Amino acid sequence: MEPADRDQQPEDRPAETQPSQRRFGAFTRRGALLGMGAVAGVAAVDVGGFAYAGGWLRPDDLTPPRFADRFEHVFGRHEGFRRNHAKGLSATGSFASNGAGAAICRAAVFQAGSVGVVGRFSLGGGLPDQSDKPDTVRGLGLVFQVPNGRQWRTAMVNFPVFTDRTPEGFYERLLASKPVPATGKPDPQKMAAFLDRHPETVAALKIIKQTPPSVGFADSTFHGLNAFYFTNSAGATVPVRWSAVAQQDKGALPAPSAGKDYLFDDLIVAVGRRPLTWKLVLTIGEPGDPTNDATKPWPQSRRSIDAGTITINAVQTEEAGNARDINFDPTVLPDGITVSDDPLLAARSAVYARPFTRRAEEPKSPSAVNVSGVRS
């Protein structure tokens, strides 16, 4: 869910599958245009930066370096920072599995017991010094340290669905969302034309508008968005989506503060008082539920499993040795989990490594958020 930051080993990468095509109904174009404003910055949210992969766009039109160039053109060049989700904090903690997930997945992480996690809280967009706003997309990336040296990486956001079904759609929306110099806002005619071509985005924006953001990171529920396949020890395979559901007593969280970095400042204070927890919920799809379309929610009636508790007990200023340089590539998966036919997955993975190559050659700038400067 953000441009890649570290190369991964070939054995960690599952085979890619081919996308299939689906479409979705829409509400009014005017409502969608208003929705685009309500979710400011959505054109560069979490699942950004993947349009070239797999031949979805012609190589002579767009390559991974050129896509990174476009992010730099929109947000400017900020050396040492990610091209998307530039503003963030590292985190550490654990995942305590209760063993219930083993019924549908043989991955060791779902066996009863505890494993370490490294995480990153972030805001969408390529501006490391942007002011925190309640409607900016919030991200939570996690690396589960699975036994035997394997990893499970996931990049989640606080939106219940994604805004685009395909890489092409994301790319078109990014272009349509480019601010016009005279107004500093997108050209309404270009955006209206984009929405006319993409009713699935219109429908997704309606769902997003119906789910207002919580007060901060600590009480946000984070969604994996894409579907994956889980296989258990008996060889049975089911489609799954997952979410991290906040377990904090909202009355015990610090009162919202003011200031440019208030979302991160409040997170730092909250973790300083007590560990924060999220329930890892696995939702099991049924025949007919789309696995190749992240704009469509599954019915709320679907069976779900409480697989255990994610605990974050510390956050850190980003620096070498923590989550600063981790690539939260969602296709780095343990045995027992494989990618679905969602076209976003293969595309995200293919382009994620490119920005890391650039960042590796750049001087590292100070972290945009400093933990030591916040009092609990």
From TrEMBL:
Q: Which GO terms describe its molecular function?
A: catalase activity; heme binding; metal ion binding
Which EC number(s) does UniProt give? Answer: 1.11.1.-
Keywords associated with the record: Heme, Iron, Membrane, Metal-binding, Oxidoreductase, Peroxidase, Transmembrane, Transmembrane helix
The segments labelled Disordered in the record are: 1-21
- Please tell me whether the keyword Lyase is annotated for this protein: no
**What cofactor(s) does the depicted protein rely on?**
heme
Residue span(s) of domain Catalase core: 51-376
InterPro entries noted in UniProt: Catalase, Catalase_core, Catalase_sf, Catalase_SrpA-type_pred
A Pfam family that the UniProt record links to this protein: Catalase
Gene Ontology CC: one annotated term: cytoplasm
Q: Where's the active site on this chain?
A: 85
Looking at the UniProt entry, the stretches that span the membrane are: 32-57
> Which Gene3D superfamilies does the UniProt record give?
1.20.1280.120, Catalase core domain
Keyword Metal-binding (UniProt): yes
Please note every region of biased composition (Basic and acidic residues): 1-15
A Gene Ontology BP annotation from the UniProt entry: hydrogen peroxide catabolic process
Q: Where does heme bind?
A: 352
| Function statement | Has an organic peroxide-dependent peroxidase activity.
Q: Which PANTHER family match?
A: CATALASE (PTHR11465)
- Similarity comment text for this entry: Belongs to the catalase family.
Protein name, per record = Catalase-related peroxidase
From which source organism is this entry? Mycobacterium stomatepiae
